[in-house]
Amino acid sequence: MKRKKRLERGVKSLEDQIKIHEEKKQKAIELGQEELVRYYEKEINKLVGVRKRKKDLLNKQ
Fold first, then answer.
1. What does pTM read for this prediction?
2. Looking at the predicted structure, is the pLDDT value of residue 60 above 90?
């Protein structure tokens, strides 16, 4: 039970971080900062991968 709640909180936290990075990426696009856009895209992809792994672990239980 404890692990399940921890995984659920982790997934929620990752979703929040993805939203924050998406907003920052949009600001970087508006400002024309290509390097920041690429950075945020990499970070978003990384966070999506971690979120997927946590969801898979959560669904196994």
1. 0.87
2. no
